Amino acid sequence: MSQLGFLQIGKGFRVDLVMHKENRFKVWNNFKLKYPNINLNGKCILVKGTPTTYRDDTDHEELTRQESYFHYLFGVKEPDFYGAIDLSNGNSYLFAPKLPPAFAVWMGEIKNNQYWKDHYKVEDCFYVEDIEKTLKSLNCDTVCVISGVNTDSGLAHQGAPFEGISNFKVDKDLLFPVIQNARVVKSDKELDVMRYVAAESAKAHSEIMRIVKPGMSEFQLESHFRHLIYCNSGCRNVSYTCICGSGPNGAILHYGHAGAPNDKLIKEGEMLMFDMGGEYHCYGADISRSFPVSGRFTEEQREVYSSVLASQQAVMDAMKAGVSWPDMHRLANRVICEQLKKYNFLKGDIEDMMANYVGALFMPHGLGHLLGLDTHDVGGYPEGTSRSTEPGLKSLRYGGLLEKNMVITVEPGIYFIRAVLEPAFLNPQVNIFLNEEKIRKFLDFGGIRIEDDVIVLENGIENMSRGCPRSIEDIEALMNS
Amino acid sequence: MSQLGFLQIGKGFRVDLVMHKENRFKVWNNFKLKYPNINLNGKCILVKGTPTTYRDDTDHEELTRQESYFHYLFGVKEPDFYGAIDLSNGNSYLFAPKLPPAFAVWMGEIKNNQYWKDHYKVEDCFYVEDIEKTLKSLNCDTVCVISGVNTDSGLAHQGAPFEGISNFKVDKDLLFPVIQNARVVKSDKELDVMRYVAAESAKAHSEIMRIVKPGMSEFQLESHFRHLIYCNSGCRNVSYTCICGSGPNGAILHYGHAGAPNDKLIKEGEMLMFDMGGEYHCYGADISRSFPVSGRFTEEQREVYSSVLASQQAVMDAMKAGVSWPDMHRLANRVICEQLKKYNFLKGDIEDMMANYVGALFMPHGLGHLLGLDTHDVGGYPEGTSRSTEPGLKSLRYGGLLEKNMVITVEPGIYFIRAVLEPAFLNPQVNIFLNEEKIRKFLDFGGIRIEDDVIVLENGIENMSRGCPRSIEDIEALMNS
Ligand SMILES: [Mn+2]
Ligand SMILES: [Mn+2]
User: What tens digit of pLDDT does each residue of A303-328 get?
Assistant: First the structure.
């Protein structure tokens, strides 16, 4: 059980919940900086936590996973809370659900508002039913809520509806750009949590390399990963559904969903493409490793793997604060084209390939994305920016410059996807670059992705997932140890 | 990967999807039997499957778990489907989402409607966008949808909204009682799936008994269980959040939720109360075992444990088709009172205890519930029936007579819950039965529940979870082997 003021699962990382007090201060401060001419008296921020939810019409209670913005500000793991920040003075308040006495029989000890106040380090805690009364007593007349569209999903945030909201002015414009932006660059405390979850996830990936063998089903490695990351590291959730592709399935970018549930048998000689990450205190890791089930790369596997690795390494070597992320995407693409030319998958001039987006035929996704409380973390395209419409680049989830203490994934890949390549063979604009005979031999190869989670530094990066080997030599050594 | 017409995960049970064709026939047939005077021409059933869902406003896609009624009728594991049954002739149709070609890059091969038709054994498959057109071509003018309140949750079913529904009459009365009732008694094929998931879950419980030791965190056993049931048995989901209570936490009936996430250290000398079950093809198991972490029952643990076991055994011995479930609940209570009197927790006359609901002070929940596609399966209180308001009995989730091939849990328990017992010590109506001094010694003991999943037979029961030991001797033997 966690100590008052801390979150710790088993022997996992001990999170000082003052981290969220700092986050609240950052949002309050950034709010003032962004709107220096706005009068903050009478204004407060109100955010709503995840409610208790049930599956369909049943009483099957879903395991609560806190909504990310609410978690960012308050770090509360329990459902049915609200939180407020008085913008006039930065004071924070929580609103807890008032639970009936019978709750104790089914769900355990009912904690009082003093406990929540002390544990989550807010100025005070009241009941949800008293939100209106409390805000009025703070002289609040305007409630600023989160209202805007997530640039990865296109979905709108639900705001913070509460009983009595109609007795306030509701501002839907001011808060969203501030809180979205606050999450993009991580604090030192956030980075420590992310270092932990990335390192533990990398460790679990390494263990998977040792465990896997032909004849296992893909899902058995998903099961092992989930177990390793929970039992050893305290991550009850993975940050996204595990992708455990063997052979051709390695070329299905989001394999593993309910319609393709990692249920293939792994066969001798196949490549594996495993994309899995744990989540701790809602902060996620997102790591991919590709390796041969045999533990020894064949010549063909070596060609493709070393091409992706060269691409990833070129990007990692070039990354630092101030660098453009779309430029890094183009760099990754260029190295992939160069490598594929070197190994006779491609022919012709590299500049011509770049102009014709030949790289996107093999890597149809973006180079990487912001990572944090969401796997595709918010803030990729803040107001005033827009996505490229170019192939590949249009799938890039962050379109700006790298900043110090951003966390971002670096995940180039090469995939042999029939649905992409068959039309390309027929397309005169790109088929002139394709060595069709060689590529056809790889149509059942699958794909390779190497994905690491890095912190952007002033003059380079810190690779938080370096604990899991990437080089051919290190992978072979680990798998045969 | 599953063969056409079957569902099989790894080496797990091979489900013949004709099971759902039988379910559809049963619903059609029961519909005709219940409404012999209704003209079925122009009427069809329409049900909606689970849509693709995202966490809050993010692009974090939730792993689809099919809505239970839809699953019952069609067995489809993919999201975004609809299904129909033409009531005039019993023909069945699926409606699949029309996926954009880019889907293949991210999610894998797009299956065509012929595949769905063959795999899920329906008469034909069309696109969701063609529901209106298709139903019109079947001469359907009235759409019967599921509309009613789940008696366990009190929540209403969402029906089957679709584009063009306003061009049909929508009947919300006819279908619900028929389909709810159809799920109560299981078919032979359903029973086979349930035997599998109960047996595998029992096996995993046995393994947990071998693994656990003092110094582990409760959640590590949750992790082991989830891993065992997935890796060995193909159950990607558990049927409900694992309850892994040690010591006092054993008395929190629904321990393990986000606010109490199985995060206590297990200490020498404690009792454990683990309630966990796997889910396979959406059919669940629900098994509880209680045992001392030391592997040897102390005298105190023996008293409470043997009392619960005697209660469970008395019920199991009395159960058969035709028996009243509330009577079984009362029997369980009576044996608990007798046992607690024998061990000096209680004093006085058993009939007086029964009249004053003394048993409910130690077992505040119901004896057991229907089990199937939902852990608390539907049909507990069909129209015309109502719940008792008596303590304990009011929490009983099934109020009728046992029928052959019902699946129900038998789960008596004895818990020492401060929130229940402290008021009872002060209540003159019941404190005369309580040996307060002895009971007080057990206030940190926690609780004991023994829960098995049984099929009701003509002349008894089949205990599907018998693979995990229940007797003190068998548990001690297993834990020390
Ligand atoms: Mn990623
Ligand atoms: Mn149960």
Answer: 999 999 999 999 999 999 999 999 99
Question: Is residue A81 over pLDDT 90?
Answer: yes
Residue B174, pLDDT score: 97
CATH number of the domain that residue B89 is part of: 3.40.350.10
Identify whether residues A432 and A335 lie together within a single domain. Answer: yes
Do B178 and B307 belong together in one domain?
no
Q: What is the pLDDT of residues B111-139, one digit of tens each?
A: 999 999 999 999 999 999 999 999 999 99
Q: HEC string of chain B?
A: CCCCCEECCCCCCCEECHHHHHHHHHHHHHHHHHCCCCCCCCEEEEEECCCCCECCCCCCECCCCCCHHHHHHHCCCCCCCEEEEECCCCCEEEEECCCCCCHHHHHCCCCCHHHHHHHHCCCEEEEHHHHHHHHHHCCCCEEECCCCECCCCCCECCCCCCCCHHHCEEECCCHHHHHHHHCCECCHHHHHHHHHHHHHHHHHHHHHHHHCCCCCEHHHHHHHHHHHHHHHCCCCEECCCCEEEEHHHHHCCCCCCCCCCCCCECCCCCEEEEEECEEECCEECCEEEEEECCCCCCHHHHHHHHHHHHHHHHHHHHCCCCCEHHHHHHHHHHHHHHHHHHCCCECCCHHHHHHCCCHHHHCCCCCCCECCCCCCCCCCCCCCCCCCCCCCHHHCCCCCECCCCEEEEECCEEECCHHHHHHHHHCCCCHHHECHHHHHCCCCCCEEECEEEEEEECCEEEECCCCCCCCHHHHHHHHCC
What pLDDT shows up at residue A104?
Answer: 87
The answer to whether the Cβ–Cβ distance between B231 and A220 falls below 8 Å is yes
Boundary (domain end) residue, out of B140, B162, B182:
B182
Q: What is the pLDDT of residue A364?
A: 94
Q: Are residues B156 and B194 in the same domain?
A: no
Q: How far is B139 from chain A (nearest CA, A)?
A: 31
Disruptive mutation site among A6, A8, A55, A57 for chain B (greatest number of B CBs within 10 Å): A57
- Residues lower than pLDDT 50 in chain B: none
pLDDT digits (tens, 9 = 90+) for A164-208: 999 999 999 999 999 999 999 999 999 999 999 999 999 999 999
- Of the candidates A56, A78, A240, the beta carbon closest to that of B259 is on A78
Q: How many domains does chain A have?
A: 2
State percent of chain A over pLDDT 90: 92
CATH number at residue B220: 3.90.230.10
| Boundary-marking domain end, from A131, A155, A182 | A182
| A1 within domain boundaries | no
Closest ligand (CA of B449): 2
Q: Which residue has the higher pLDDT, B11 or A386?
A: B11
**Do the domain assignments include residue B1?**
no
Q: For residue B146, what is the nearest residue in chain A, using CA coordinates? A: A57
**So what's the pLDDT on residue A103?**
86
Please list every residue in chain A whose beta carbon sits closer than 8 Å to the beta carbon of residue B59. Answer: 150, 152-153, 155, 376
Q: What is the pLDDT of residue B392?
A: 86
Do residue A353 and residue A407 come from a single domain? yes
**A chain contacts of residue B227, beta-carbon cutoff 8 Å:** 223-224, 226-227, 231
Tell me the residue range of the domain where A75 lies: 6-182
How far, in Å, from the CA of B276 to the mean position of ligand 1?
32
Distance (Å) from the C-alpha of residue B422 to the closest C-alpha of chain A? 12
Residues A102, A19, single domain; the answer is yes
Nearest bound ligand to the CA of residue B397: 2
Nearest listed ligand to the Cα of residue B371: 2
Judged by CB atoms closer than 8 Å, whether chains meet at B150 and A107 is answered as: no
Please determine, for residue A2, whether its predicted confidence score (pLDDT) is greater than 90: no
Same domain, A299 and A171: no
pLDDT at A1: 67
